[in-house]
């Protein structure tokens, strides 16, 4: 594990597995790089270099300038710093809200060779309603140290989990880890709130592979369809998995085929 410095002095932790063409892995909400390390290892077994990232304010990364204002711009700057460090030809893979961050970075001109968007959420029928007050409330809860309340707000009003799924979780052994990562939820909210509409991606000119688990949640299946339809050079592939948990080996096989194609163009 090493750190790469972003433009505001934030130190972004990365863990690299394997050698070969680089696949930079951005995790989603309530995840750090550990969520994508199995995928990094599976990519390494296929001759690629998987680079798993702790996005700012989570895991072993810092956050020099926290807060909602400018959050998207800071995360895009982080991706730019990572890509610059890793060199040309990077494939940028984002999981869940990390997929929206990957799209935002490409739209902002971060020079990536290819995009892989894995189980990324956009606004489709059946998705939780976007409420502009959520971001401000999250920011206030995090700033005041009410991390548990911030996690529950994100789970209920952004993810859309029902009350029965939230009941009793504060007594679970994994709850402290969720509270620890709560400051990063401001960033997940900011990037998904900035880019809720897939039709706004029609100007994106990067070969893109949209991936989803074949038994994922219906709203994520609809999101994948919408993204694949909106991005001009995109194709959609289904991989084994269920409930927002695609199989790392299946994802790695699809990514390796995409990266290894003659020109990386999905279509």
Automatic annotation (TrEMBL):
Residues 23-254 form the AB hydrolase-1 domain. Signal peptide: none annotated. One of its GO terms (molecular function) is hydrolase activity. InterPro entries: AB_hydrolase_1, AB_hydrolase_fold, Carboxylesterase_BioH. Keywords: Hydrolase. It comes from the Bacteria. This is Alpha/beta hydrolase.
């Amino acid at each position: 594990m090493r750190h790469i410095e972003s433009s505001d002095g934030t130190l972004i932790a990365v863990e690299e597995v394997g050698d070969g063409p680089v696949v930079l892995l951005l995790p989603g909400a309530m995840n750090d790089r550990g969520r994508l390390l199995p995928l990094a290892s599976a990519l390494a077994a296929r001759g690629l270099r998987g680079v798993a990232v702790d996005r700012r304010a989570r895991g072993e990364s810092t956050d020099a300038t926290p807060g909602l204002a400018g959050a998207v711009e800071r995360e895009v700057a982080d991706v730019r710093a990572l890509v610059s460090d890793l060199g040309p030809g990077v494939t940028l893979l984002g999981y869940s809200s990390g997929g929206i961050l990957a799209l935002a970075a490409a739209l902002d001109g971060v020079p990536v060779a290819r995009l892989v968007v894995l189980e990324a959420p956009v606004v489709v029928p059946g998705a939780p309603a976007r409420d502009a007050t959520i971001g401000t409330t999250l920011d206030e809860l995090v700033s005041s140290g009410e991390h548990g309340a911030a996690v529950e707000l994100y789970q209920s009003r952004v993810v859309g989990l029902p009350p029965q799924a939230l009941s009793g979780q504060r007594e679970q052994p994994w709850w402290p880890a969720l509270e620890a990562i709560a400051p990063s939820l401001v960033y997940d909210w900011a990037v998904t709130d900035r880019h809720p509409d897939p039709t706004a991606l029609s100007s994106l000119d990067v070969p893109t592979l949209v991936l989803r688990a074949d038994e994922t949640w219906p709203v994520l299946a609809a999101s994948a369809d919408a993204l694949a339809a909106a991005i001009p050079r995109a194709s959609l592939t289904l991989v084994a998995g269920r409930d927002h948990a695609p199989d790392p080996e299946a994802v790695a096989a699809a990514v390796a085929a995409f990266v290894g194609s003659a020109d990386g163009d999905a279509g």
